[in-house]
C-alpha cells in the first residue's frame, strides 16, 4: 500500500483568504491527508441549535480542490461555554472532590448521559452534513481520550453510573460483597446505591472496589467512542473511523476502544515524552534530549498496530520543539525525518504532522508547526519534504503490510490498573515493567508484536513474553498450552483472580501440568537492595520466592538459593523484575532456543524488520557501521555507515536474516 | 510470670468449618491468646439493632474448647455503612476541609457525640453478651487510635466540642485572649463561639491556638477510649482492658489513654517502620532493610511499658513481608524470632502475631500471616514455633518483672505537639530528638525506662535525660531538685510556658538555685552548617546561646566560644542538638559520673538488662563475640558468639554487671 | 539629607507602664522613627463603631514626648473577627477553591467592595483622629501587600470584579475573544458574565486569560492602597504615605502602587530570604547562611528606590534570627550593621529595625527584636547603636541623593506574570533572570538603577540591560532609539504582544531599522544540557535561534553555529540565558564599550557608588584588601583591608573612579 503524510490544520484559526494558499503549499509539500475540525464546536454551533457549517464546508472544499483528503474531527473534546452552562454537572470532578471548570479542554465527564446525547447530536449533524462529501475520507472521534488524566471522574453521574454497572455485573449486593471481600473492615453493603466512589477514603479503598471502578471508567470511554463511531458509520459510508491515542496512557482499554475503530492512531511527541513520561534517569534523558527515547515510539507503534487489527497512523507527529514538557528542546536535525521513518518501519499507513502553522495565540502558541506563525518554513518542513520525496521513490518497496514479528509481548490494560491500585513496592509500574522487556528485546535487534491478553493469538511466534499479567483468561491459558514457541511468564503474572484476590493455590495460578510451581512469598525491594541472580544480573524492585514441583526445573537461582528462573517444557517462569543485564541474559538464551537471530545493539541504534526489509535508525550521537552486524550490499535508503539521525533500509537478505 | 504468644484471627473471614482446625493448629503451635472481632461490626449488627452474635459465640466457643484465651475487640474502628448513612456528619474532615468517605476504616470523628453513643451501645451489647464467657479473658478497645492520622478532624462536631472545651478551660474570652496573646494580629474574640479550628488560615495560626486544639483532640481520644473501658469493666469483671497503640504516633497522649487500660499493647512492624517512619538516611535503611532499626522496637517497648504502669503486650508482631510501606522486603531468617525475644527482654507479657492466615482478599491481601492463604505454613510460623518452644524451656527464668533501668528518659506527648506546631527549623522533631538520645544510650549498652513528664518519678535513677521538654510542671521541677542521679536537660527544654509563650526570665525557666543559666538566643541550622563543639562532635539543626550565672559552670563550649554544656550540681544543660559523636561523648561521661557500666556497641548488636539477666540481640549482618564485652560462662539461650539474627541470654553476673 | 534609624513597636503588646521607658531607650539608642499600629484593629475598634483610640493617643504622646517621630499604620491587614463574621465573603479563596479562614492575617480579598469600604472607614477615623498630631509624621498603608501570596483570590467578588474589568477593557465579548484567541479549543464566550476565573481547569487555561486576571488582581491592590492614601492625604496634610513591600514579590505592580506613595519601603530579611527565596544551590546557601546573599538586598534597594521616584526606606530590617524560614540561623556578628549600611549606600532615608522587643507570645515569638522578651539588649541592639553613632559622625557626608548609576536594568512586573504563566522551561523565572544580570553587573563593581518598563527613561545611562521583557511599549522603543549608551536586549524580550500572542513578524518584534533580526525558534534546556557559546560560557535553560538581516552583525555564536549575540549600532541582542561566565564575558565587553570602569570582585565583596563616595561591604568570610582595586588614601569609615562583615566608605576620587 501507499504510505502517506498528512498534517493537522485549523482553518478557523486563520483568515479564510489564506486557506487556498495553505492548501496549495500542503499539496506541494507532498502531503495527502489534512485533519481538521476537532476543536471547533464554538464555531460550528455558536449557540444551541444555531449550526454554522458553511465555513467548514468551504474549508473542506478548498482542501479537496487541492486534492487533499480530509480527516474530519468531531469537536466533542471542547464543549462550548453555552453548553456547559446549560448542564454544569457535565463537568468532571477530581479525586479531590473538586469540580473542574471550563477554560481549557476535555472538561466533560464520560459518565454524563446528557453530555453523551449532546455529542451524539453534534456528531449526527456533522455526519449528515459532510458524511458523503468527496473530500472527507475519514473521521476522528473526539481527541486524545484521557489526555490530562480525564478518564476518571468522581461526579454524581459517575457514582450512579458505577452503581448501575455493578448491579448489572453482580446482580446482588451479596455477590458483590463476596467478590470484593467486603467482610474485611466491615465494608459490606446491603444495596447498590450504598456504593461510594473509591476516593477520599481515610486510607486505601478495597482494591477490588477500585478495580471495578477502573473497569467501569474504561467502559464509559468505550461507550462514548462507540456512540460517535456508530453515527459516523451510518451516515458516512466508506470512510474510516479513527481516534488519536496518546503515549503511555493506560487509563482505559485501548483494545476495547480500538475494536470500534477502523484505524488506531496516536500522537507521537518523542522529546516531550522522554522528559515527561520516562522512568529513565537524568543521564539517559540528557543523552537523548534531542532525539527521544530510542524505544518509546517503537513500542507505541507496535501497540497501536494491534489495537485495530493492523491499520494504524501517527496522527500527530512532533515537528519541532513543543510547549508542554518540563523542558522543550529542539530536535536534532534529521530527527523529524527519522521519527517519520520509524513509524513506516512499523507499518504506519500515514504520518501526520502536528500542526501546519504554529498558532501565535492561546495555550499552544509555543508548539512548533511545519510553518512558523509568520508562515515561513520551520525546520520540520524541510524534513517532512524529504520524507515525502523518499516515500515517492520507495513506494513499491513499502507496498506491503509487516508480517508477524519475532516476538510477541502480551499486553493488558487491566494489569496496568491493577498494579497502579496495588503496586506493593513504590517502583512497580506495569508499563515500566513491560517496556523494560520491550527495550531488552529491541536491543537484541528483535522485532516485536504486541498481543492483547483479552484476545491472545500466540500461534506462530518463536518467542512469547508475558510480564506482570494481572489474571489469566481461559483463552490465554489455552493459547499457552498450544504454543510451540518459547514462552516466558512473570514476574507477578497470574497473581490475582479477576476479583482481585490471591488465587486459591497461590500464584501464578496455572494448572500444574502447565507449570508445576507456586509463588509462596513475594517481596518488594528498595532500589539499593537488589537481589543478585547471576554474576552480572539482579532482580530489582520485585522478587518472588518460587517453590517448584517435580515437573518443573530450576534454571537460575538467586545468590540466596531461591529459584529465579524455572522451566517446564517450553514454558519459563521468571521470579523477579530483572535489570537490563539479567534481562539480556535470559532473553538472549530464550531467543537462541527459539531459533531467532539476535544482535547486540548499542543504546542508539535500532532495527525493525518489516516484510522483506530491515530498517536501521540511529538515535545515538555517533555513527555506526552496519557491516558490524554482517550487513552487506547496497541499502535502498541511506548508507551502511549510519550517521546520527539517519535511516538505512536494507533487504533482509542483505541484512543476514 | 509466664510469657506467652498469641495471634490475631478473623473467624468471619473463613468458613466456619475451618475454625476448629485453625484452633487446633494454634494450640499445637504453642499460642495462648487469640485476638478476634475488632473489625466485625457489619457481621455483628448487619442492620440497626439486628444483632447477630451467634457466630461470634461459636467462634469463641471453638477457641475456648482448644484452650485458647480470647481477646475480644470492640468493632468501633469500622462503623458499618448503614450507620454512616444514618449520621453522615460522623465522618472526619481533613485539614483541607474535605469530608473523608466510607470505604476503608477509622472513618469517624472522635468529637462526634452521636457516634460515641453508638460505640457505647455496641460495646455494651458485646460486653453483656460475652463479658463473662470463660473463654474471654481480655478486651481490646477499638483498633490503633490515630492510625492513618485520624486524631485530628476539622468537622463541625470538632469545632463545637473545642469551643466548649475552651470555655471550660478559660471561663472567659478575655482569659483566652490573654493566654493566647490574641492581641497579636488582632486575633481577639469576644465569645467562645467565635473560635475557629486552626486550619486553612492564610498563614500559620497562633501556636497557642493550635496547641489547645491538639490538647482537645487528645482528650477526645481519651474520652472515646474511657467510654468503652468503663462499660467493659462494668460488665466483664476480671478481664483486662487493652488497646493496641502504634509506632511513632504522638498525636494523642498515650499516657492519658493508658491510664484507663490494664495493659498497653502496640503493633510492631520493624521493616515497615524502618522504611516509612525513620529519620535515618538511605544507607541505614539499606543496611537494616531485612532486620529493622535496632532501636525502634526497643524504644516503643520501653514507652508502652510506661503507659499502663508496667503491663504491656505486643498485640501485632510482623511475621513476614507487609503491604503498606514504600518497599516491603522479607525479613531475614530469624528476625521474627529476634523481634519476639526483644519484646520479652523489655518485659512484654505476650507477643501476638498478626495474623494467623494471610487474607487473599481486600486491602491487606499482601500482608503475610503465620499461614499462607492456602493454609500452608509461612516462614514466620516456624520462627514462632521456635519461640514457643524456648519460652517453655525458660519459663521460670523469665518469671520476673524487669526492675528499674539504668537511665530514665522523660517523655511528653504535648512536647511532640508543640514542636510540630513550631519546629523553628525544618528538621526539629520531638520524636527524632528523643530517639537520638535513646539510640545513643542503647549504643552504650544501657537499659532505659521512659518516664512521663506528667507524672515523673525520677527517684533511684543514676541518670535522667530530659530532651526538648515543652514546659515544666511543678512536679517535675520538684523531682529534679530531689534527684540524686545525674540529670541532663535540653536542648529546648522548658522553653515555653504552658500557654505556649516564652517564660518571663527566658528559657529554660528553672529557678536560679536549680540552674543559674538562661538561653538568650537560639538558632536553627541547615544540615550542612553544624556548629563544632568538640574535636569530634557538633550541634546540628538547633543551637542555643547560653548565658551562665555565677552558680553554673561551663563544661563544654562551641568553637565560637558559646557555652555548649553547663553544669550546676548534678544538673547539666545541653545547649544544642548533638550529633551521635557529641551525644556519645556527653552521655558516656555522665554515665561514668553516675556509676554506670557502659559498653561501646556496634550498630547491629544491642543489649537489654532484665532483672537478673541480660539479653543480647544481633540486628547486624556479621557475628559478634560477646566475650569482647567481658561476658563469660554459659548463656541460658544462644551462644557467646552471636550470629546475625540471633539472641543470647546471660545471667547478669556472667555479663559483667 | 539626614539618614536615620527607626524601629517597629507594638504598644498594645505591653503594659502601658512600660511605654515611657521604652521610648526613652529608643531615643537613647539614637532612633528617630517608630512605626506603630498596623495590626491593632481589634484594639482600636473592639466592636463595630466602638472606637477606642485613647490608648493609641497616649502611646503616640509618649513617643512624641521622647522626640520620636511616629509612622502610624492602618490596621487593615488584620480585620477583626467581628468584622469577618459580618461579611464572611470578604475572605479570600485559594486556587484550590477553598475559603481561607480567620486566625492569622491578610484574610481579606482585594476585590471585595464591602471590605474596601470598611478599610476606608477605619482609615478615615484614624486620619481624622491623628492626622494632625504633631508626633505623627508619616503613615503606613496596610502591611506587606501580597505577603503569604494574598494578591490572587478566586472568590465570587473576584469573579464579578474581573468580569467588570474585562468589560471595561474590551467593551465587547467579540473583542475579548479575538484578543485572547478564544477560537482555540472553543473557548469563546458570548457575554462577559460567562468568564470564569482561570483556576481548576482540566489543563492550563489560556495564557491571555490568566494574564488579564493577573493585571486585574494587581489593579485591585493599587485600588486598595490608593483608597487609603487618598483619605490620609486629605486628612493628614504634610505627612508621608508609605507602604512596606516585600522581597522577591512580583504578584502586583509595585510601580503602580508606588505611584500613590510618597515613600516606598520594604522589609529586608537577608537570612530568611536566602534560605527561602534564593535560586542558588546548597553550597551558596551554606556559605552565606549567616550573612545573606550579597546581592539580594542591594537589588531590592535599587528596585524600591525606583518605585516612588527616589524616596525609600527599609521599614523592617532583620535584627537577629527570624522565625519563618526553613532554617533560621543567627547573623554573623556585624551583619546587622552591614545590612544597615548597605541600605544607606543605596540611598535609603531610614532603616527601621523589626522589632523593638521580641514578643514572647503568638506567631512571631521566635523572631528576634532589638530587645529580648525580658527587655535585655539583644545582639542587634549594639549593632544598631553603632550605626546610629556612625551616622551621626558621617551626617554631612551622606547628605546627598545618589546620582544616576552606571547601568540601568529595565524591570517589569507584567513580565514576571507572563513567564510565570508560560515558563516554557521549568527554570524560567523572570526574577531569576533579571537577578542573574544584576548579580553579574554587581560582581563587576557596577552600580545599578532599576528603570520601570512602563515609564522608561534611559537617557544618560552608559549601559542599559533589558532581559526577558514581555512586550514593548511605544515609549520604550522610542527610548531605545534615542539611547546613546550601549543597550543589551534579551533573551526573550519582546516575544509577545500585549495580548500574549507571538508578534506578527516573530520576536523580538522591534522595527527592522532598530534591530534587523528575528527569533525563528526557541528551545528550553535541561540544566544538564546547556549550549556552549564561548570557551568558558554557555546558554542554560533557554536558547533562541536567531536569524539576522543585513543590518545586524553576529558577534558571538554557539558551538552549533547559531548566532548567540547580535549587534546593530549600539543595540545588542542576546539569544539565550547566559551562565555567570558568559554573562561576565558579554557584560564586561559592553561596559568597556560604554566607558565604564569594571572590577573583578570575589563572591563576598560588593561596592556601591553613591554620589561622591563608594561603599565597600564584605559579605564574605575572609578579609579583602581594597588596595587591590587601586583604592588609596584614608576611608571615611572602616579600613582599606576590609574584614568580614565590615564596611568601608571612600571618596570616589580615592577609589579610582
Automatic annotation (TrEMBL), chains A, B, C:
Residues 405-596 form the Beta-galactosidase trimerisation domain. SUPFAM superfamilies: (Trans)glycosidases, Class I glutamine amidotransferase-like. Residues 8-393 form the Glycoside hydrolase family 42 N-terminal domain. Pfam families: Glyco_hydro_42 (PF02449), Glyco_hydro_42M (PF08532). It catalyses: Hydrolysis of terminal non-reducing beta-D-galactose residues in beta-D-galactosides. The keyword Transmembrane does not apply. Keywords: Glycosidase, Hydrolase, Metal-binding, Zinc. Its EC number is 3.2.1.23. Belongs to the glycosyl hydrolase 42 family. This is Beta-galactosidase.
Amino acid at each position: 500500500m501507499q504510505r502517506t503524510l498528512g498534517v493537522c490544520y485549523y482553518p478557523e484559526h486563520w483568515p479564510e483568504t489564506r486557506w487556498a494558499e495553505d492548501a496549495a503549499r500542503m499539496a506541494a509539500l507532498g502531503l495527502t491527508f489534512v485533519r481538521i475540525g476537532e476543536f471547533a464546536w464554538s464555531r460550528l454551533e455558536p449557540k444551541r441549535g444555531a449550526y454554522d457549517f458553511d465555513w467548514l464546508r468551504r474549508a473542506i472544499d478548498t482542501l479537496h480542490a487541492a486534492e487533499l483528503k480530509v480527516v474530519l474531527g468531531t469537536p466533542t473534546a471542547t464543549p462550548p461555554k453555552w453548553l456547559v452552562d446549560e448542564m454544569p454537572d457535565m463537568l468532571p470532578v477530581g479525586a479531590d472532590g473538586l469540580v473542574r471548570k471550563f477554560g481549557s479542554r476535555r472538561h466533560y465527564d464520560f459518565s454524563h448521559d446528557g453530555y453523551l446525547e449532546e455529542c451524539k447530536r453534534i456528531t449526527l449533524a456533522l455526519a449528515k452534513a459532510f458524511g458523503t462529501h468527496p473530500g472527507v475520507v475519514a473521521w476522528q472521534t473526539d481527541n486524545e481520550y484521557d489526555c490530562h488524566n480525564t478518564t476518571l471522574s468522581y461526579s454524581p453521574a459517575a457514582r450512579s453510573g458505577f452503581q448501575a454497572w455493578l448491579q448489572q455485573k453482580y446482580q446482588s449486593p451479596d455477590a458483590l460483597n463476596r467478590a470484593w471481600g467486603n467482610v474485611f473492615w466491615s465494608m459490606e453493603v446491603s444495596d447498590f446505591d450504598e456504593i461510594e466512589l473509591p476516593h477520599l477514603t481515610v486510607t486505601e479503598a478495597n482494591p477490588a472496589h477500585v478495580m471495578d471502578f477502573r473497569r467501569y471508567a474504561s467502559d464509559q470511554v468505550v461507550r462514548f467512542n462507540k456512540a460517535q463511531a456508530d453515527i459516523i458509520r451510518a451516515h458516512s459510508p466508506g470512510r474510516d473511523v479513527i481516534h488519536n491515542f496518546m503515549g503511555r496512557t493506560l487509563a482505559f482499554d485501548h483494545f476495547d476502544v480500538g475494536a470500534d475503530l477502523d484505524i488506531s492512531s496516536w500522537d507521537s511527541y518523542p522529546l516531550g515524552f522522554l522528559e515527561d513520561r520516562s522512568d529513565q534517569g537524568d543521564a539517559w534523558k540528557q543523552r537523548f534530549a534531542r532525539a527521544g527515547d530510542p524505544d518509546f515510539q517503537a513500542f507505541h507503534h507496535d501497540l497501536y498496530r494491534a489495537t485495530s487489527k493492523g491499520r494504524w497512523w501517527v496522527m500527530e507527529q512532533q515537528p519541532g520543539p513543543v510547549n508542554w514538557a518540563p523542558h522543550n528542546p529542539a530536535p536534532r536535525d534529521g530527527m523529524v525525518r527519522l521519527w517519520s521513518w520509524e513509524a513506516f518501519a512499523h507499518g504506519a499507513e500515514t504520518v501526520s504532522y502536528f500542526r501546519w502553522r504554529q498558532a501565535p495565540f492561546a495555550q499552544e502558541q509555543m508548539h512548533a508547526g511545519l510553518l512558523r506563525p509568520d508562515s515561513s518554513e520551520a525546520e520540520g518542513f524541510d524534513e517532512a519534504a524529504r520524507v515525502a520525496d523518499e516515500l515517492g521513490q520507495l513506494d513499491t518497496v513499502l507496498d506491503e503490510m509487516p508480517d508477524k514479528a519475532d516476538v510477541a509481548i502480551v499486553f493488558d490494560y487491566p494489569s496496568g490498573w491493577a498494579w497502579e491500585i496495588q503496586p506493593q513496592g513504590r517502583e512497580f509500574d506495569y508499563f515500566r515493567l513491560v517496556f523494560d522487556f520491550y527495550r531488552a528485546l529491541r536491543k537484541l535487534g528483535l522485532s516485536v508484536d504486541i498481543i492483547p491478553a483479552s484476545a491472545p493469538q500466540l500461534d506462530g511466534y518463536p518467542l512469547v513474553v508475558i510480564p506482570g499479567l494481572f489474571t489469566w483468561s481461559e483463552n490465554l491459558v489455552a493459547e499457552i498450552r498450544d504454543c510451540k514457541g518459547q514462552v516466558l511468564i512473570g514476574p507477578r503474572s497470574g497473581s490475582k483472580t479477576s476479583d482481585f484476590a490471591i488465587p486459591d493455590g497461590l500464584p501464578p495460578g496455572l494448572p500444574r501440568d502447565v507449570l508445576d510451581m507456586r509463588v509462596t512469598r513475594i517481596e518488594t525491594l528498595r532500589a539499593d537492595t537488589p537481589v543478585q541472580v547471576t554474576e552480572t544480573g539482579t532482580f530489582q524492585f520485585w522478587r518472588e520466592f518460587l517453590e517448584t514441583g517435580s515437573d518443573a526445573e530450576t534454571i537460575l537461582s538467586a545468590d540466596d538459593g531461591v529459584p529465579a528462573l524455572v522451566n517446564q517444557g517450553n514454558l519459563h517462569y521468571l521470579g523477579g523484575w530483572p535489570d537490563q543485564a539479567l534481562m539480556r541474559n535470559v532473553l538472549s538464551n530464550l531467543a537462541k532456543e527459539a531459533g531467532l537471530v539476535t544482535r547486540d545493539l548499542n543504546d542508539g541504534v535500532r532495527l525493525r524488520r518489516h516484510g522483506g526489509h530491515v530498517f536501521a535508525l540511529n538515535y545515538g550521537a555517533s555513527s555506526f557501521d552496519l557491516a558490524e552486524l554482517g550487513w552487506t550490499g547496497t541499502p535502498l535508503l541511506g548508507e551502511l555507515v549510519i550517521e546520527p539521525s539517519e535511516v538505512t533500509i536494507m533487504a533482509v537478505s542483505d541484512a543476514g536474516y
